[in-house]
Design brief:
The protein is of the alpha+beta class. It has 4 helices and 18 strands. Helix content is about 20%, strand content about 40%. The radius of gyration is 17 Å and the shape is globular. The N terminus is likely disordered.
C-alpha cells in the first residue's frame, strides 16, 4: 500500500467473543493491560502496543475475530483495491469502517478510529505493561494472506515456518500468518521481560499458567489457551 505520512494508520485489535466476559476482563487486568472502556457487554483494552476488544457472547459462539483499527476508511478502501485486494466500506461490529476479503473468501473488519497514537515504550505505559498484542491468522493459504496483509499496509518483520510471516502494524500490535487446515484466528502476546515474573503475577491472582521454554501458556476463562512468547518483534 503506497501511503503518505499520516495516512497509513493501522492498529491490531482482535475481538474476543466470549461467554466468560467478566473473567476475561479480570485476566487482562492481571496481565497488565489497561481497560479503555467497559459498558458491561463490550470492553476494550490497550497494551500500549496493540488493542483487544471483548464482547459478551453465548457459550456456543465463543470465538476470536481478526480485526484492526484504521484512520480513514475511504482512503484505505481505495488504496487496498488499487493494490489488488478486495475491500469495501462497511459498518463493522464496533462502528463505521471497512471490510477486506481474501482470495479464499475469509474476511475481516477494520474500524475507523481517531486514536492515532503510536506504540509506547513499556516504561511510559500506565500499567507498566511489556506486552505486544499478536493476532495470528491461520489459513490453508498463508502466501495469499501475506499478500493481503501487505496490501492493507502491514509491514513485514520476518518470515515464519510453513510459508507464514510476521507483520507490524504502524500504530500498534503484530499480526502473523500460519498454515492451518482451515481459517481461524489465535490471540497471543509478545512479552519484553522474564516470563517467570509474569507467571508469578498470574499465579498470585489464581490464573493457571506454565512456562515452557520461551513461551508462557495461560488457560483462558472460556476454556481456551493463550500463548505469551518471550522476546521482541524484530
Amino acid at each position: 500500500m503506497t501511503t503518505t505520512p499520516g495516512e497509513s494508520m493501522l492498529r491490531v485489535r482482535p475481538i474476543i467473543f466470549t461467554s466468560a466476559f467478566e473473567a476475561t476482563l479480570t485476566q487482562f487486568h492481571t496481565l497488565g493491560l489497561s481497560c479503555l472502556e467497559n459498558d458491561g457487554d463490550w470492553a476494550q483494552f490497550d497494551s500500549g502496543n496493540g488493542k483487544i476488544g471483548v464482547f459478551r457472547e453465548a457459550p456456543e459462539l465463543n470465538h476470536i475475530e481478526l480485526a484492526f483499527e484504521l484512520r480513514d476508511a475511504a482512503i484505505f478502501v481505495r488504496r487496498t483495491l488499487a493494490d489488488g485486494t478486495a475491500a469495501e466500506l462497511a459498518d463493522t461490529v464496533t462502528g463505521p469502517g471497512a471490510q477486506v476479503t481474501a482470495p479464499d473468501g475469509f474476511s475481516f473488519e477494520l474500524t475507523a478510529s481517531e486514536d492515532l497514537s503510536l506504540p509506547r515504550p513499556a516504561e511510559s505505559q500506565p500499567t507498566g505493561s511489556r506486552l505486544t498484542v499478536v493476532q495470528t491468522w491461520c489459513t490453508p493459504h498463508p502466501e495469499e494472506a501475506n499478500a493481503v496483509l501487505a496490501n492493507i499496509g502491514a509491514k513485514p518483520v520476518r518470515e515464519l515456518p510453513g510459508g507464514g510471516a510476521l507483520f507490524r502494524a504502524k500504530n500498534g500490535g503484530l499480526v502473523a500468518t500460519a498454515r492451518g487446515e482451515g481459517s481461524g484466528v489465535v490471540l497471543g502476546f509478545m512479552y519484553e521481560g522474564e516470563l517467570s515474573t509474569l507467571a508469578a503475577r498470574l499465579a498470585a491472582a489464581g490464573v493457571s499458567a506454565a512456562v515452557d521454554g520461551d513461551v508462557l501458556e495461560v488457560n483462558t476463562p472460556d476454556g481456551g489457551r493463550l500463548a505469551v512468547a518471550a522476546g521482541q518483534e524484530s
